[in-house]
């Protein structure tokens, strides 16, 4: 049986965040596109979903043994790990910028 579109909400991560996961057939044979969405408030307080990022991840169905659940879980875990990395990066940038601002400009001999 072929499918046109699979969607599941909520998919709850270990962190407790809720995502909408959609799986669609890709243009490439034997591949599917997996996309993540987060819940947001739209016009007039209506609930809507915003796609995370601009693209989607392509998964080979045979390589993943047609396990759409595992694909969805992998996508959520990958996103959250990337997000943690971005947060660490921003914190390090902020700390370095503050240190630069406090620096008196005198060259330090090592």
Walk me through this protein's architecture.
The protein is of the alpha+beta class and about 110 residues long. It has one helix at about 70-100; strands at about 5-10, 20-25, 30-40, 45-50, 55-60. Strands 1, 2, 3, 4 and 5 form a five-stranded antiparallel beta sheet that branches. The chain starts with 5 loop residues before the first strand and ends in an 8-residue tail after the last helix.
Secondary-structure blueprint of this entry?
Elements: E1 6-12, E2 18-25, E3 31-41, E4 47-51, E5 57-60, H1 68-102
Antiparallel strand pairs: 1-2, 2-3, 3-4, 3-5
Question: Quick summary of this structure?
Answer:
By secondary structure, the chain is an alpha+beta fold. It has one helix at 68-102; strands at residues 6-12, 18-25, 31-41, 47-51, 57-60. The chain is built from one helix and five strands.
């Amino acid at each position: 049986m072929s499918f046109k579109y699979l969607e599941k909400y909520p998919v709850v991560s270990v962190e407790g965040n809720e995502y909408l996961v959609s799986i669609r057939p890709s243009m490439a044979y034997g591949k599917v596109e997996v996309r993540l969405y987060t819940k947001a408030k739209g016009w007039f307080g209506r609930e809507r979903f915003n796609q995370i990022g601009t693209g989607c991840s392509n998964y080979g169905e045979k390589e993943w043994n047609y396990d759409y659940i595992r694909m969805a879980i992998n996508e959520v875990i990958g996103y959250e790990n990337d997000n943690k990395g971005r947060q660490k990066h921003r914190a390090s940038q902020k700390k370095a910028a503050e240190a630069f601002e406090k620096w008196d400009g005198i060259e330090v001999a090592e």
